[in-house]
């Protein structure tokens, strides 16, 4: 697995420019200013977040570099832990929704029998 921080040049050769069909997942840019890679790392170079700091989050993405050298582009990667948490949360929501539907159906059946 290529680390975006250790081998940025070879990794960036395979990044796609943002477009109206593939907007930046961080700032929504569609002009081609930002670059992103949709693979297991979901790596994005985003220039639309000039005040971002290392550790900042936008949805499931986390900023992995500071703007200490005056660069306007930040590196963002998908936080897999966040994605797992989000998947777990969705599963819990669906289970709760099913439970409520079952309780409502049982109450309806009880009213019909009474």
The amount of helix comes to: 25-40%
Strand content: 15-25%
Content-based structural category: alpha+beta
C-alpha-based Rg, rounded: 21 Å
H/E series: HEEEEEEH
The profile of the biggest β sheet is: 6 strands, antiparallel
What is the number of beta strands?
Answer: 6
- Taken from the alpha-carbon principal axes, the silhouette is elongated
How confident overall, as mean pLDDT?
A: 79
Strand order of the largest sheet: 1-2-3-6-5-4
Helical stretch tally: 2
The low-pLDDT segments are 6-12
N- to C-terminal distance: 64 Å
Descriptive overview:
The protein has 114 residues and is of the alpha+beta class. It is built from 2 helices and 6 strands, in the order H-E-E-E-E-E-E-H. The protein has a 6-stranded antiparallel β-sheet with strand order 1-2-3-6-5-4. Strand 4 and strand 5 (61-63) form a beta hairpin. The longest helix is centred in the last third of the chain and has 34 residues, at 80-113. The termini are far apart. 16% of the residues are buried. The model is unreliable at 6-12 (pLDDT under 50).
């Amino acid at each position: 697995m290529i680390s975006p921080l250790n081998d940025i040049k070879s990794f960036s050769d395979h990044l796609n420019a943002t477009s109206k069909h593939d907007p930046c997942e961080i700032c929504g840019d569609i002009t081609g200013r930002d670059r992103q890679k949709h693979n297991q790392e979901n790596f994005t170079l985003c220039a639309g977040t000039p005040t971002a700091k290392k550790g900042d989050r936008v949805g499931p993405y986390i900023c992995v570099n500071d703007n200490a050298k005056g660069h306007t582009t930040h590196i963002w990667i998908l936080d897999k832990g966040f994605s797992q948490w989000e998947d777990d949360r969705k599963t819990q929501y669906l289970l709760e929704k099913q439970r409520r539907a079952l309780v409502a159906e049982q109450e309806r059946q009880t009213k019909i029998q009474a």
